[in-house]
Design goal:
17% strand; 29 helices; OB fold (Dihydrolipoamide Acetyltransferase, E2P); globular
Amino acid sequence: MSAWRTPVAAAAFALGLFLWPAVGNLAPVAGWLVCGLSAVVAGLWLAPPIASRRGPLEEAGLAEPEEPAIDALSGATLAPRRAPAWMPPMCVALGLLLAGVAWGGFHQHRTEGALVRRLAPTQVTVEGTLRVDPESQERGWSAVLDVSLVRWGDRAARIDESVWVAGYDEAPVAVRGDRLRLTGMLRWPDDPGFAGSLLRRGIGAELLADRTERIGPSSSPLVRAAQSFRAFVGRSIGRLFPAREAGLLMGLALGDDSRLDEELARDFHATGLGHLLVVSGENVAMVLAPVIALGLVLRLGRVARFATGLGTVVFFVVLTGAEPSVMRAGVMAGIALIGALLGRPRSAGVALAGAVLILLVIDPALVWAIGFQLSVAATAGMVALASPLAERLAFLPRALALATGATLAAQLGVTPVLLYHFHEVPLVTLPANVLAFPAVSPALLLGLIAASLGVVSPALGRPVAMLAILPMRYLEMLADRLSTAPVPWVTSKGGLVVLGVGFAIVMLVAWWFRGKRRIPRAALVVAFGLLLPGFVWSSALGAGPPAALTVRFIDVGQGDAALITSPGGAEVLIDAGPDEQLVATALSALGVKRLDVAVATHPHADHIAGFPAVFGRFPIGLVLDPGCDEPSPSYEAFLRAVEQERLPVRHPRAGETVIVGDLRLDVLAPIACAHGTASDPNNDSLVIRVSLGDNVVLFPADAEVPSQQMMLDEGVPLEADVLKVPHHGGDTSLPEFFDAVDPEVAVVSVGQPNDYGHPVPEVLDEIRATGAALYRTDELGDVVVTFRDEVVLIASAG
């Protein structure tokens, strides 16, 4: 049981941190702390005295228990404390859980009491150190700044607090570790979700920066050395490798995605290989192993090897920006090095738990960091299951069995976390990671060797770089081929139930495999005789085309996305919403394997931001796009994705028709790109009339009065059974347009809370006046329309 003490302690403390937001208000922080310490003391007091505990030889029956020295001298016998064996560890675990709750409360109170929080809203000038590289966004940039000095009015204060920085100009030419001076307005965000995220991360306020100045590099010599090394290596990589491979190597080696090819990033994420593009514990091991081996070759003493290894780990952690996964691996490596120095090596499970406990005490905010959660879950999965799974795969070659076992174990560990946060896990990730395993280390190590040699002379680095490109190209090809493979995805709606049930299943699997238990024959008969055919049958039913024309208006918040499926098997997606992943996840959950047509109605982000992920995950037959020159970051990303995925594109105009199997798509607008209207992009919207026989659905996207008036003047056929309400129900439509459509059903795709005032009540009244029944995605979630026996059926999937 001793091997479980540290893991149980770490798990209890982490759970306490998680529980603080839910139970913290039940008692003051001091009360939680006193209760926790009392439970720990009680557990230690109830534990048997050290002298009465049996050692491993006695436990094995190989030696007689030694009489305590005091007893031997006095002849007295100490009466053992009478308590059930489970009570002492239970008390200690409960105490650490309560201490975790208290520590989470202290962390929150410290953030809420930060000076930058109390100053908001105030115009200030701050000086501090960048914690992360500035990240460019659709509008401006963002970063996290650790503030050391704040000035407001004629006052100033030295502090140690953090702010979230948002700028609306060009991102500063600076990297993490650099010192900046910023002037702007301190505020606390109005968005409860964003505000809660900042609070959990220990960030005291948001700074809307209007002036930014780089003061200089970090004041720490170690950080400056890491910055210089990173810059040297980055320049060397850029000289030696093509742009695509240079970006991949920067991601593999340093977790720097600033040069990463967008198509490559999509492919890696769609195949579950995205973890390779961020620095992880595996990188720490690959960097530390050769250093330790070199120390052994040079016959360095134990202390010298410890110092060299620890220095390497610390430098690598600083070099990669102290990412949560690297800090976890770095502390684990430090614990292992200390154990080796003292001649008392620790198991991987104890080292992992010790690292988690140390890091959460230092920075409680890590418990909410998704990267930290995934790193711990993956490592715990490998510690618990890698060897047992490899043993069950003994029919494979040894190296392949180990790689497969480690991949399966890590995937089992992270699956509950992925389903909780991202609601999806690609099943292709298992073969993808197994097939990628042999190439990752050669790509990384050869790439770093080439870059290091290239710092001295490009001529020295080029031959090694040519070798490094081979495994990199293999990884690229693997990700590209598997990203659109017709393999199902495991999806969920998230929530604590999914997380809890997922971890319960993982622990049950670990208990089963580590105990070398065999599945009873009766259970196999039930599984394969009853459950498996049922699963296959239900999957077959779900995967086939519907019995009638079906339109699913996907709830994407403030935006549009609709999937049309026909009895003939045609599948058409009209718009992909404002979220980069939501629609791709929804399509995976619906069992979509390919899209015959993807329609980007116009270049606004709330309609097209999700398309790059869709293009990277599904084969696409044809893309329709108005093709009007409306530059925006979202539209540029859309166009790059179309080009990178080599998709066929058409820019149809009013009067054109696209036939997709048994579906007919008539384009009603635009005649030409709009110029001089109140919103040219909206009036450039492709207006699509989708029909299957007499069943008709009209998608006017965000077409406004000029576009609607043109269609009315031209006398185009607007009648439809179902109308997707234009522009989310905004006050930009003509009553005559609704009269001409005369729908039975009208669906408003809209999000709440809504800064635009959509939908406008008067517009909804105009639609109801036509006799149409109104349905809203903000109230019902997904709205599913099915045509059956001349009846329009409505279902809600909210």
